[in-house]
Task: structure prediction
Amino acid sequence: MRGTERSLARRTELLAIGRRLFADTSYDALSMDDIARQAQVAKGLIYYYFRSKRGYYLAIVEDSVADLVTLAAGGLDLPPVARVHRTIDGYLRYAEQNQAAYRTIVSGGVGFDTEVHAIRDGVRETIVATIAEGAYGHSEIAPLARMALLSWVCSAEGATLEWIGRPELPRETMRELLVRTLGGTLRAIEEMDPAHPAPAPARRNG
Result:
């Protein structure tokens, strides 16, 4: 058991190091020799746990994604609108407190890698589903509503990246800004598709 615990701890440590490395340097610019030197481990150890540089990077992205989704998609016991607020607050808290990991998820770079893109798309779909549950009480929504919410999520990603790079606004202000822009998106959905009415708070905000 102790050996297993040490192995898991070592793997977790390597993932944390990788988050920092790939947040500051592009995928192509880092060789396995660079990674091993900066991690102060033998290159063979990284191969032992992850088999390849790509495997290492994918593990970093998946680990980061799991943390973000867990934090942002919780609050199942809350009323629907409160859950939307919690989702946005949890998303911002994660980005603020785990900046390297957030950058890895949103903008870390393997170029066009379908598996990495699928992982990131899965995060977006989870956030869309969480917002839909909060706004409409269910995650199965029409294509127009899904596209509108996905557009909002992509916009929120860009704004959050800018915010953690230049934190000129308090998190509470940033959260309120994203809540209000989401309210505008929900009202636009209702106007174009009355089958998806905006929650009452979204109607009142502006």
The chain has a mean pLDDT of 84.
